[in-house]
Amino acid sequence: MLSLRSSPAIVTRRLETIIISRKPNSVITCAAKGPRPRYPRVWKANKKIGTISKSKKFVECVKGLSNVKEEVYGALDSFIAWELEFPLITVKKALKTLEEEKEWKRIIQVTKWMLSKGQGRTMGSYFTLLNALAQDGRLGEAEELWAKIFSENLEALPRIFFNKMISIYYSRGMHEKMFEVFADMEELGVRPNVSIISMVGDVFQKLGMQDKYEKLNKKYPPPTWEYRYVKGKRVRIRAKNLKEFDEAHKRSNESDKEANKLSSEEFSENNNEHLDEVDGEPNKLLNKFDEADQYSNEVEEAGISFS
């Protein structure tokens, strides 16, 4: 009788097919049991640009503009046109660099543009604008901004704003307005610091108001302790030794700067010496390549082949 038997080759093939089918699939399937295609994101750039480089470009863009309002606002709008969100951190860093370079007009332009966009309406940005207006000599606009901030934030106005306005009026000899700001400060219960008391007391002495000067010193006696920040740490110092501490701190900062300059000069000298040494190495490599080419040409002319 005939018997049907499967050959071993067929069995092995069937086993192989079964093993292959049990391997995990590398294609990602979605809920519809179909392959999900992977497309590259068009809006995501390969090069990542940080806020520091963006702020530098922002500063360069602002410095190259004129003082026309429409041109400045149009250039700044085009700079942030492709941003998904308003680059507040970039603008803040740019304002910080402009403040270090004392570009007061540019600070006023950028801050007003930022506020017109409804962004950065904080006490820090208002104080930056107030300081820039005072430094640029635009006292009328500074007083308007001060009146607006004072009327909107009576109960939560920081002391630094009072200090700034009193220093502005003190430097310009506007004593009456200075006394008004100091009276508002006392009515709101804001305790003046040492600089405000010294400016107001100096004006009392200049005007011959000795009784008011004595009352001011009795009401606000000089503090026995002062606080300073040294390398990020808060240090308490006696008021008597404050001048000595400030002088010593300045000397230490100057010595640190000189040490950093010397270290940078030494690094540049060592780097130049290293570059002089490296400049000769490419020539040596080129000579070696030339020798190798000559040897290969000689081998081809002799008819020698390497298998």
UniProtKB/TrEMBL annotation:
The keyword 4Fe-4S does not apply. The keyword Repeat applies. Transmembrane segments: none annotated. Residues 246-264 have a biased composition (Basic and acidic residues). Keywords: Repeat. PROSITE patterns: PPR. PPR repeats lie at residues 122-156, 158-192. Residues 246-307 are annotated as: Disordered. NCBIfam families: PPR. This is Pentatricopeptide repeat. It comes from Macleaya cordata (Five-seeded plume-poppy).
